[in-house]
């Protein structure tokens, strides 16, 4: 089953509306449809595309980025790099997505329809530390602009937004840029980033978060000219709610004239979950978000036609060996990792690697987001490899990781193994004593409870058995923990066999 919908069925919804790591969301209204994209960092395919008719019930309809470029730089995992804070726009009868890669510069892709075909990434501006890019087309004058933030880790500066004139076709910038907002000059403000630019009521508006991912707030800035000077105001902050750091997202207006704002909340191993806030324009023409500037937990749904409850898919039977849109590799995909066939089930090749001791280094881990609510994950595994040391399994993958699965031993037997590695550890260790799996099959479970505390169990023919100690899932620096499927083998010559995964299920225990 999919994760539970945020739709409460009585005309209200509960936050978060997307309870998993859909980081740095931006959204858009085109006709009767709403679309959302999010940061995908180093995973492939990237730039997820979600669709809704009511801003509450969402489905994943595709990805805009099939390959991270420069391709050679993403042959191996770079979990916290790649696509940062994309901006989704509609202009000149095309969809556009701009983003900053902190190591390479500002890119864009565009397409005539949300499902594509999307262009290959185009490098708009090369440079280190250019992040969180957002375009703005001024329909009144025909001019185009772009605003972006800075990553101090690459550029040596942060807490400022730089604006540029941009070619109307989005292919490049027309100047060296000007700092249009310097938050070092605003008392109490730090880590200003994530800008989204708009035109409204004769003003240039920039919605931008500050204060850090965990503890920050949402700011709004306005000016009569794109290059400033800008006035500022805090328009959303935690207040006395449990929603820490409610910031960074996008504003959307429905056909009925209602305004809404989607943003993230950082929730540790679950990553950045997405909340939806009501928005209105106050008597002084500044935006008012949430309940007078603090997040809402439950609220009336947007005044839009009723929709059936939905959430992004999680389950998969892998028909014909193909996997659903919810899955992403941890680096650019290479031929031969997964093979199609006539039956159901995912068939992963046991890829030979010198990094068999550390899943964090493997590009061929097929992942999806860890649910933000307590849930049970299960899958059936069969190891079809005679190679000593070949293994496959189900993992919780982050800065620390743990996995349970099957391994072919030197004596030809297959054993159920459970391993883990702590943050910073160079090699994995046994989390439980290996047990024989006489038929080379296992049913595997991970129960993720409160705080992403994970309990592992298995069945190799004698009934379900617990395995090892509780494992607390951890994120990377910017990415939430992931669920993963993998198959690998030690270095050597020739093919090393494969592993088959069937009936992948996530059963939510949320009520």
TrEMBL record:
Query: Would you say which domain of life the source belongs to?
Result: Bacteria
> Do the record's keywords include Membrane?
no
Q: Which one Pfam family would you cite for this protein?
A: GH43_C2
Leader peptide range in chain numbering: none
Q: Which CDD domains match?
A: GH43_FsAxh1-like
What keywords tag this UniProt record? Glycosidase, Hydrolase
Q: Which residues form the Beta-xylosidase C-terminal Concanavalin A-like domain?
A: 316-506
What family does this belong to?
Belongs to the glycosyl hydrolase 43 family.
Q: Which named protein is this?
A: Family 43 glycosylhydrolase
Source organism per UniProt: Streptomyces mirabilis
